[in-house]
Design brief:
By secondary structure, this protein is of the alpha+beta class. Helices cover 25% and strands 31% of the residues. The protein has a single domain, classed as Nuclear Transport Factor 2, Chain: A (Roll), CATH 3.10.450.40. It is globular and about 55 Å long.
Length: 165
């Protein structure tokens, strides 16, 4: 296997512009739970005092955030803002039993949602598994290749079939 050619600074800058920047989010739940998001803040020195400002998500942090936001948004929720297909339909499965059929539908809806994300080159893996500790929660395990990025991004997003958190 040959090593990928090294990118120039201009190519890397173009890649990060294509992936985008956004206001940074802070998730209040346990690591990887992706619930109760709020705007993140950064502290920096300024004119003799510490200044608190809104944080910016970019690079890999933005990539995680863009994927989580797409999956945590119900399809159609942003229709009034001009994005009727943004989000995922897996939220329609709240209240369904954690069976193989339900997990297959979660996977189908997740793949449909990710197919509409222009910054994803390829979904290499999407597994939906039963959470060992709680039967009502499934783990959505993803390996995604983003546009023009050599290394895949691995992400685990829990989904509660009872309460949608």
């Amino acid at each position: 296997m040959t090593a990928a050619p090294r990118r120039t600074a201009a190519e890397i800058e173009l890649l990060w512009r294509r992936l985008g920047r956004d206001l940074g989010l802070f998730w209040a739940g346990t690591a990887g739970s992706f619930v109760d998001a709020d705007l993140a803040t950064d502290k920096r020195p300024g004119h003799g005092q510490t200044v608190t400002d809104l944080a910016v998500a970019e690079e890999v942090g933005q990539a995680v955030q863009l994927l989580v936001n797409r999956l945590m948004t119900r399809e159609g929720e942003l229709a009034p803002l001009g994005h009727p297909e943004y989000g995922s339909r897996h939220h329609e499965l709240i209240g369904e039993p954690n069976t193989e059929r339900t997990r297959n539908l979660v996977k189908l809806y997740i793949l449909q949602a990710l197919r509409r994300e222009p910054r994803i080159a390829k979904v290499e893996r999407c597994d939906v598994r039963t959470e060992a500790r709680r039967r009502d929660i499934v783990r959505i395990e993803l390996t995604v290749r983003l546009i023009d990025l050599d290394d895949p991004l691995n992400l685990v997003v829990p989904f509660d079939l009872e309460t949608a958190t």
